[in-house]
Amino acid sequence: MNKETWLELYFSDEMPDCLPLPDRREEYASRWENFALPAEAKEDAARRIAEILFLLGVYGGLEEAGFPVRTPEGWLPLRLNWKGDLSPDALTEHVRERMEEGTAFSWTKEEVWEALGLEQGRGIAFSLAGELPPEEREGFALIFRADGERLLLSYVLSSYKAEFIRTLALSWREIARSFSTAGTLSAVSVTAPETMEVLDSFNRTARDYDRKATIVDQFRARAAEGPDNIAVIYEEKSYTYREVDDLSDRLAHYISGQGLGRGDTVAVFIPRSEYMVIASLGVLKAGCAYEPLDPNYPDERLAFMAKDASAKLILADDSLLPRLENFDGCSDKRLCISEIPRLPQTAEEERKNIQAPRPEDLFTLIYTSGTTGVPKGVRILHRNLMAYAAWYRRFFEPTEKSRITCYNSYGFDGSMTDMYPALTVGAAVVVIPEEKKLDLPALADIIRRHGVSISDLPSQVGRQFALTMDCPSLKYIVGGGEKLTPFRPVHPYIFANEYGPTEATIAITCYNMTEYEPDVPIGKPMDNTAIYIVDSAGRRVPPGALGELWVAGEQVTGGYLNRPEKTREVFVPNPFSAHPAYKTAYRTGDVVRYRTDGNIEFVGRRDGLVKIRGFRGELVEVE
Q1: How confident is the model at residue 481, as a pLDDT?
Q2: What pTM does this model have?
């Protein structure tokens, strides 16, 4: 085999990016630092190189890696892939064979770089020729070597932080230990005990809150304390807590009179209005779960959702009644929203006769499409939302004087962010009309006019708003739903970058951004939440390594309605905790990595990542 054929065989496609982007984003510089750990056993060169290949595969979330090897005779390109059922000894033998093949040809440094597609300033290498002189290190950011007594890493200080390098070295030593005993690569330990303690510290999020109460309980308490406080505003209409309490009680009494209660679902088919708050509370007070039906969705999808949820009653806006004719197979029990104010008032004894919801009861069904396009109803429980609302109140500190926008679609879990934390502290919910959601000057006018202090917006809408609109009362812009494009803030807002799947109740991490950052993290685990970053073999990986985000804790929902197989696939027994509140972990399918400070960086979807010129990105970003 000649050199060209050998290159074509092993290096014809794009070389993956073995390590995530460096911790630091400073311009490439030449100052080097060294880090060493004692080696516990002497190993030959092929074993050490196999360890580093595997290490870089772990960090890149891949089962392949490659880098230049500096032998005493010169440079050599090396690249291998593997499967988890391969043994460490077999990987070592593959390294030995590949190196023997490669050393049959002569190589310049430039040829090696070209074969591997390395980027200037980000190269990674393994040296079998001792410490390399400065001219040999040019273009590299990280060089591994071992001298029998020590495991050594040399790195460019402007690219990597010392803490990252220490964690990387500890993982190398852990892999070296495990290579001698593990039967397969899937069984190799990749995270050192010292690093596991750090990972566990990120999950020390326990905080107390009232676990016996529900949103209904807390709303009633706020209505009793401040009946004249404004609860909801929509355009020129406003309703006090007393008025919302009264209207929602009337609706709850009507629903109960239809023989509905705990365990039943009521569909709510309304446009954006004050009844997003009033109707939802009325259903919840009756002990039922509500299913929001957004009129912006096609009738076919809405009918499927109402039928799938076995909705026993549909509350509908008068303007939408003709569309209900397309809801085949759904309940024929209907109540027009315009009838609610004319329902009879309820006496105290009548309210007491309605069985109130309990923390374990179903709160709402939020339908997501997922990857199949078939809507799946996520079962969010009262206790899930109580946990989220408790975190929200601590993090954003709203009071009864606060006014908070309701911007998100009624059928999206973000609408619960907009409504329920506010209603549990006596604050006012300002519902944004549909036609003004993308009209930023009109949106800013509403925020200024009502003195809004917290506004939850889609990330890119929030970004544009932060760059162009000046609203002195606004303290927090809460962004979520999509990856945030970095920007340099113009106005003194705090941009709270939230992340979370509906299956874990709205959001599970949050990061306050107040100045430009080239890669805005999604933050740290929220209260009473544990996050695990896990590789394809089910191992927790060290900070800096890519893996799938798993989440456990109080906000993990009750799975999918009528989808037992899909529920079992992604709601799994938690192998990392025996705590009853953390017994189930939800596998998000999102690829992330922990930073060494406990903040998490979002990379993309596990099923939507591609490699271009060695960089990993999402298909949506390429488009």
Answers
A1: 86
A2: 0.93
